[in-house]
Amino acid sequence: MWKLPAVTLFVLATSLSVGAEAPEGQATQIVLEKLRDKENYNSAVRPSPHGDPTEVKVQMYIREIDVDDANMKADFDLTFRMVWNDPRLTYDGAGVSYVNILTPHLAWLPDAFFKYAITTQLESVYPESYLRVYPNGRLIYSTRLSLKQNCPMNFARFPHDTQDCKIQVASYGYTASEVFFTFDEEVQIGKDLHVEKFHMENIKENMFSYCNTKTATGEYSCVQIAISIRRAFGTYLLEWYLPVIFLVIVAYFSFLIPGDQFLARLLLTLIPLISLASFSYSFRQSLALVPYVRALDIFTGISLIVIFATLVYVIACYIKGGQKCNVAADEARAPDEEAPKELSDEPSAFRRAINKLTKRAEFLSRCILVGFYVFFLFVYFAAYCGTG
Questions:
Q1: Coil, helix or strand at residue 266
Q2: Half-sphere exposure of residue 209: CA atoms within 13 angstroms, side-chain side
Q3: CA separation for the pair 63, 145 (Å, rounded)
Q4: Distance CA 16, CA 10 (A)
Q5: Separation of alpha carbons 58 and 204, rounded Å
Q6: Dihedral sign computed on CA atoms, order 224, 230, 231, 232
Q7: Distances in whole angstroms, Cα of residue 336 to Cα of each of 149, 332, 333, 339, 340
């Protein structure tokens, strides 16, 4: 029996394998030949058959966000895509939906850059980017990258604030009359995305806007995506607000101690004052330095003032006379105990009236100190938590 040589069999097998992949392989070869044809295709020239501006549509898929609010920075792990048409790369797509080119630098690419970016680093495993070419000349450039950028924030309502981290994509060299950016579809966000200390807000239509920039060399196209994140208040409630409120309550306990026990009353007001002042200083070191007052500063400041006013009240009572400052202790004294000098023993009606007014003033001072702080807490949380 006649047998074919082994080399001939290998060639036939290879030919059959190539023939099975002919549609996609031929289409890829056609596109590569067009990209490398320097006479008919120049990657330095933008696609514009009639001199019209080239429309570039922007797409994004955000995989991860890491917000550093102390330094007003944010890190994004995202897939970035640009879509445009290049009639020079049309081909016969019989049996082929599209072809992938793993060397996208052979084609003309929009000169997009991130305006707030500090560093931009490609993160994905090779190939880090690709160019998808459709038979009608539609091109999609896709790449996965890590974006570290500035994220300006307003901390006037901190920690009841909601921040917008803006991602701005602009053209660097082409003016808006040559290349302009638009949104192809809504930005997609990973389902399991978690931002430490923040909650993701729903992306709305008004978060997509245009931010064209005019300079001395012309107007440049720019698109903006504002990602809204709301701070998780529960952490600050447990770690700061409740401890501060408890310190104020401890200072109020000095009202229940007899007026002649000055040292105990002094410690119950002085220790919360020193503790709050020191904790406030150390806590502020971990926050962003801003030249304006934050909501947290208002809460801490009023709490310090209330504790300090309680300390002043205790000292004033001691200077006036410890036993006269505690109305409750005087009323609870046993009948057989030797009573202090009563109002009836005063030599004149004027002095009796003065002492009576003094005791009423002391009682009113306690009520004002407690009532003012309760009223402040109500107004504060209604203003910031209720209108967030």
A1: helix
A2: 9
A3: 10
A4: 10
A5: 17
A6: negative
A7: 78, 12, 9, 8, 12
- Could you please report the per-residue DSSP string of 344-376? GGSSSHHHHHHHHHHHHHHHHHHHHHHHHHHHH
Q: Which stretches does DSSP call E strand in 190-260?
A: 198-200, 208-210, 213-215, 218-220, 222-231
Q: What does the alpha-carbon distance between residue 184 and residue 84 come to, in Å, rounded to a whole number?
A: 10
Label residues 96-117 b or e (16+ Cβ within 10 Å = b).
Answer: bebbebeebebbbbbebebbbb
DSSP 182: E
Predicted TM-score of the model (pTM): 0.75
Summarize pLDDT for 138-150 with one digit per residue, the tens.
Answer: 999 999 888 999 9
Neighbours of 34 (CB within 10 A): 18
CA of 280: how far to CAs of 247, 299, 376, 377, in Å?
Answer: 12, 11, 19, 18
Instruction: Find the length of the chain.
Output: 388
Strands 213-215 and 188-189 turn out to be unpaired
CB 78 within 8 A of CB 61: yes
Task: Give the C-alpha separation, 316 to 310, whole Å.
Answer: 10
Residue 42 three-state SS: coil
Q: How far apart are CA 59 and CA 182, in angstroms?
A: 9
Q: Are 135 and 141 in contact (CB under 8 A)?
A: no
Cα angle, residue 71 at apex, residues 66 and 75 outer, rounded to 5°? 25
Residue 312 in tokens? 């002043």
Decide: 277 and 304 in contact? Cβ < 8 Å: yes
What are the DSSP E strand ranges found in the chain?
Answer: 54-68, 73-85, 99-101, 112-114, 117-122, 129-133, 138-150, 162-171, 179-183, 188-189, 198-200, 208-210, 213-215, 218-220, 222-231
What would the pLDDT profile of 231-289 be if each residue is shown by its tens digit? Answer: 999 989 999 999 999 999 999 999 988 878 889 999 999 999 999 999 888 888 888 88
